[in-house]
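Before relying on records like the one below, remember that each one covers exactly one chain. Contacts with other chains, cofactors or solvent are not represented anywhere in the record.
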Amino acid sequence: MAWTQADLDALKAAYASGTLRVRFSDGKEVTYPTGDDLLRRIGIVAGELAAASAGKLAPIGRFATFRRG
């Protein structure tokens, strides 16, 4: 799915109001199980939109690193 700024705005509005149900600009409606899931989706969409505007692909995962001291 190609995300739009309107989709991100809808996600943020739902999170701010404490609602877990989001209706997107294409009419699709999604209910997230928890606020954490909704917040995670906001981060994913924001990252993809930022990467698209910068002209590069968004990372799909990150790996933790550590060092022994």
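The chain has a mean pLDDT of 86.
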